[in-house]
Structure formats: structure tokens, C-alpha cells
Amino acid sequence: MAKNIILLGPPGAGKGTQAKRLEETRGMVQLSTGDMLREAMASGSDMGKRVAAIMDRGELVTDEVVIGLIEEKLGQGTSGGVIFDGFPRTLKQADALGALMARLGRTLDAVIEMQVDDAVLVRRITGRYTCGQCGAVYHDETRPTKVAGTCDVCGSTEMKRRADDTEEALKTRLMEYYKKTSPLIGYYYAKGQLRSVDGLAEVDAVAAAITKVLDKV
Ligand code: AP5
Questions:
Q1: How much is the pLDDT for 81?
Q2: What is the 8-class DSSP label of residue 143?
Q3: How confident is the model over 156-183, as pLDDT tens digits?
Q4: Is residue 173 among the annotated active site residues?
Q5: Is the dihedral of CA 98, 6, 209, 115 positive or negative?
């Protein structure tokens, strides 16, 4: 049966990497509010222009904007299951998601907390690059493309780095995470939906741990 899950963790925890894996292996759909906002910026839309500076600084955009994005996408071809990546990030967003899922008659099957040590995050974030075509995630040291500059998945040579992947912006992103997003750990624990995996393990081992959770819920 289709499962709907949240991947919860600080910037660089590996949410995007694992979401892409789940799309490939289980046919689930990744709903990344970060990606949606970056698409809006790239398209030059009014909303994209409004959020650009906020995102570059590493602050959270308003709840209304991201809740609207999720409402729009959740109805489109997601019956195979959804991975919420980077959403919800505040208690207000979590309440809104609960209400939306109830309205659509869907369930949230698990909230998977990816536990990491802050010390690894700077290295993970500053070494990250992604494929501009398919979004595959790489790292200068730990996960480079097999052929330099060419995506392993789709063969594109368009590689991108994010404007907020600097040490300075990461400090703000981490502060935002601890102030506004980490309370969700207690919120979902109290609802009996929280599961935790070791996000410091190798990518394959993290994927195996997530699969184990998914097979049980
Ligand atoms: P968003 O795009 O969601 O970024 P983030 O949460 O900061 O998370 P990241 O994408 O940086 O990290 P990740 O956990 O996906 O790590 P990844 O797999 O890439 O948000 C960006 C901004 O948008 C926010 O700051 C905010 O402004 C705005 N925004 C988005 N959603 C919002 C919301 N709901 N509300 C308000 N504002 C919102 O991995 C990182 C690196 O590590 C990669 O290079 C990867 O290869 C490597 N790696 C991954 N796993 C491993 C592993 N197990 N071992 C070794 N290396 C690994």
C-alpha cells in the first residue's frame, strides 16, 4: 500500500538524497518545498522574487507560502505515496499538513527523523552539488560523479551549487532549524509517529534503515 512519510532533519541531514532513492526504488513522489521555492525563483515569478533574499540568507519563508505550495502539489499524481522533504518546518505547518491529509482522506504513516551530528553538516553542505536536469545529489569528496561534471543518472553536464550553501547561511539555517523545526520531533513523538534513523551512516545503510521503517508501518 502507498505510504506517506516525512523526512525530518537539519540542513545536510540527507533528506534530499534519501527522497530521490525512494522515488527510484518505491515509486514514491518527493515533495520538497525547497525545490519548489527554487523553481519559483528560477522562473522569475512574483513569489520567487519575494522569497529569494530570505532563502539566500537561510531564513524560513512564511508558512502561508509553503502550505499553499504543498496544497497545490499533493493533489497531483501522488497516489503512489509521498515523501515530504523539508516540510513541515514549523508547528503551524505541521497542523496544516494534518488538516490537509485528513481532508484528502490520506494518512501520514511515519515521520523519520534523520539523526546527525552538527559537526558533519558544514562539510556536507559546502561540498554539495546537484544535477541541474534531474536533481541527483553529489558531493565533492564523499559522492562525486563517476565522470567529472557528468551526471551518473541522466548524463547531463549541467551541475549546480546552491546560493545558500555557504558557511554563513548555514549558521542561520541551523539556528532556524533548532528554533522552529526541532519542536516537531516532540510533536510527532507525542502522536506516536516518530521513527529515528542514524543519518551519519553510509547512504546505502541509511536507505536500508528507512526501508525497514517503511516495511513496518
Ligand atoms: P531545503 O531545500 O529544504 O534545504 P534544507 O532543509 O536546508 O536541506 P538540504 O537540502 O540543505 O539538505 P538535505 O537534508 O536534503 O541533504 P542532502 O541530501 O542534499 O530548504 C532551503 C530553504 O528553502 C530554507 O532555508 C528556507 O529558506 C526555504 N524553505 C524550504 N522549505 C521551507 C518550509 N517548509 N518552510 C519555510 N521555508 C522553507 O545531502 C547534503 C550533502 O551530504 C550532499 O552532498 C550529499 O551527497 C551528502 N550526503 C547525504 N547523505 C550522506 C551520507 N549518509 N553520508 C555522507 N554524505 C551524505
A1: 95
A2: B
A3: 999 999 999 999 999 999 999 999 999 9
A4: yes
A5: negative
